[in-house]
Design goal:
34% of the residues lie in helices and 14% in strands. The chain has 207 residues and is an alpha/beta fold. The chain folds into 2 domains: 150 residues, Ribosomal Protein L4, Chain: A, CATH 3.40.1370.10; 50 residues, no CATH class. The protein has a 6-stranded mixed sheet with strand order 2-1-3-6-4-5. The longest helix has 17 residues.
Amino acid sequence: MKITVKNLANEPVKELDLPESVFGYPYNEHLIHVAVEAVRAAQRAGTHKTKTRSAVSGGGRKPWRQKGTGRARVGSTRSPIWRSGGTTHGPQPRSYEKGVTPREKRNALKSALSRALVEERILVLDSLALPSHKTRDLAAGFAGLGVEGKALVVDERGNENLVLAARNNPKLKAVDALAVNVYDVVDRPHVVFSEQALSRLLEVLER
């Protein structure tokens, strides 16, 4: 299968052969769902915490004697049933990461990319070397390419102009070729690759 490589002026430059092993991978909705859940779970901080009765200050003295008052026996004012007491079974810091194997991640990404190609959501440019770091210039260039709305822009990490131009636009996300994940591909209607970045990503996916 082939895809047309364009330049920033929306002019066709050449055609690029795409490997069938990646862009012809069968669509697997369940595998994509598992990979997306893993990505989103890993983004959770997991720093939430409530205080148990042992962490709440105070409560060292027994409020009243054990017997003879007619009231229920109590050992501490920081019991969970008291006002200002500890929390029972409240959230504690933990990791939300899900176990997904490297093979499953690669296959899920192949499946998502093959579907994106079928839906004509992938654009390959000969270069993403921008003459300016201005956000409006990048937005105007993408508008001329038909890229409107949310887009994932994939190039080498050292492209400073691209990073600076994309970071002020909430609809654009610029990443390195090896940082592409299933969630970003599924979540965004446009995926823009530089030819060099696509070749680098394919080296990993074809292993």
